[in-house]
Amino acid sequence: GTADRCSRNTGARHDCAPDGGPSDRCSRNTGARAPATIAPPCPTPTTPTPATSTPAPPPPLSPYVVVSAAGGLVTSEGGLRAEYTLKLTTRPESMVMCRLTSSDRKEGRPTRPWVIWRERNWDTVQTVTVAGVDDNVLDGDVLYTISTKAVSRDRRYRRATVPDVTLTNLDNEGHDVFPGVVVETGTEGPLCTTERRGTHSFPSFSFHLVRRPASAVAVLIYSEDSTEGVTLPSHPARFIVKPDEWDKPVRVQVQGVDDSLPDGDVEYQLRFALWSLDRAFRRATPPRVACINMDDGDVRL
How much is the average pLDDT of 25-30? Predict the structure, then answer.
C-alpha cells in the first residue's frame, strides 16, 4: 500500500494518520500531496429559548366595605352605646345594602338593621350605632358581635367579605345602683318643649358627677324619641368631665321637634350613657330626664 512504498523509498519510518490515510510526514518524504482534510462545519449558534413562565394568579378580591373598628367597643346595660363606621372604597354599579345582625340580641343590637348606599352617595361614611340591652339577669360582661352582609347586583360587593365587629356589654346587676351623675331640672315635673316654630326659649337642665372619678368621664346624652325632642346645640350631646371638674354643673338645652302631625302632647325621655376607665362610672345606671313636647295643632302635608 502507500505506506509500504513510502517506507521503502525513503527508508524513513512512516506514521499513518489515525484514520488509516497518509500523514503529513509521509507526504513530505515522498513528495506526494496529501489530501486536504475538511474541517467539520462550525455549529450554528442557537438562540436560547426563554423559559415558559406560569401566569401569576389574579390578585385576591379587595375588601370593598371598610369597617373603622373590628373590636374593643363597649356597650352597657345602663344605656352606654357604641359607634363605628362603614364606607365603600369604589363607586358601585348599583345600590349596595348592608344588613346588620347581632349574634346576641339580648345583649346588644344595632339601632337600624340596614345601611344603604346609592350611586349618588356611595362615598358617604355611614355611622352604625349599637345599643346595649338590659336583660335584668346577673350574667356578667358578655361578648357579642355585629355581622354585616352586603347585598347588591354589583358582584364585587356581593362577594365582599365584611369583618365582624366585636363588642362587650357590661352587666349592671349584682351591685348597688350607682347613678354616676346628679341631674337638676329646676322643676318637679317634666321639662316642657314645644313644636311651635320661632320659639327661642329652650328649657334646660344641669348635671354633675356624684364624686371625683379616678379618670375622665365621657358623657353622652340622647333622646329616646328624636322626632319629639333633641339636645342643643347638637344631638346627641357629648361632654368630657375631668376629675378636677367633677362637681362643676354642666348645662344642657332641649329643643322640641315639629313633626307636622296632630299627635297631641308627647312624653319622651333623655338618657345618659357614661364611659370611663373608672369601673364604677362605666357600670353606672344614670337617671333619665323626663320631657314633654307640646303639640302646636298644625297639619302640613
Answer: 46
User: Taken in order 64, 70, 76, 82, is the CA torsion positive or negative?
Assistant: negative
- Would you say 81 and 110 are in contact if contact means Cβ atoms under 8 Å apart? no
pLDDT in tens, 210-234: 999 989 999 999 999 988 999 998 9
Q: Is the peptide bond before 58 cis (omega within 30 degrees of 0)?
A: no
Residue 53: band (very low, low, confident or very high) from pLDDT cuts 50, 70, 90 = low
CA distances from 79 to 71, 82, 158, 298 (A): 19, 10, 34, 34
When pLDDT is averaged across residues 70-77 and rounded to a whole number, the result is 84
pTM greater than 0.70 (yes/no): no
Rounded alpha-carbon distances, angstroms, from residue 58 to 61, 94, 155: 9, 24, 16
* Distance between first and last Cα of the chain: 131
Question: What is the spatial distance between Cα 261 and Cα 244, in angstroms, rounded to a whole number?
Answer: 46
Which backbone phi and psi does 253 adopt, to 5 degrees? -100, 155
Asked if 89 contacts 107 with a C-beta cutoff of 8 angstroms, the reply is no
The distance of Cα 261 from the centroid of its chain, to the nearest Å, equals 39
pLDDT at 301: 39
Cell of 206: 344641669
Q: In this structure, what DSSP letter does residue 287 have?
A: -
Q: How many CB atoms lie within 10 A of CB 70?
A: 12
Determine the longest span between alpha carbons in the chain, in angstroms.
151
CB 197 within 8 A of CB 260: no
Residues 179-188, mean pLDDT to the nearest whole number: 91
Distances (CA, A) of 1 to 4, 35, 120, 134, 155: 5, 16, 105, 122, 92
User: Running DSSP on this structure, what letter comes out for residue 120?
Assistant: G
